[in-house]
Design goal:
- The chain is mostly helical.
- The chain contains six helices and two strands.
- It has a two-stranded antiparallel sheet with strand order 1-2.
- Strand 1 and strand 2 form a beta hairpin.
- Helix 1 crosses helix 3, helix 1 crosses helix 6 and helix 4 crosses helix 5.
- The radius of gyration is 17 Å and the shape is elongated.
Length: about 140
Amino acid sequence: MLLSKSCRYALRASIYLAQQPGGAYVSTRNMCSSLDISFHYLIKILQKMNKHKLIQSERGNRGGVRLARPSDQILMKEIIESIESESFLTKCVLGFPACGAPDECALHKEWVVLKTDLNLFFSHTSLYALSVENNLNY
């Protein structure tokens, strides 16, 4: 899988939050239950997203988490980069430390094209497009 488990969960959590009416705070316990993600694992993911100002958190009975900006202003790339380093699209797809001319891996030429397309997709796809326009499930 190209994206790590943490990154996939961050995208699922983001879609879940984008689908909540009125931008209300959502209980992290409810998110865990709905998304079938361990509480402690989700908290670590949400902390990274909070650090990157993608979500806001509030403590207390009416607290929880919500998106920090409208979903049409949050790009898929921002969510991915809050969890993964940007280098996940620059590294060799087969994991070789030095991949490129003259020592290209077997997938290098195809990966260059695919990662360019992926980067464009991630950079131009908003959370709104993922969650509302396409009515995707988290």
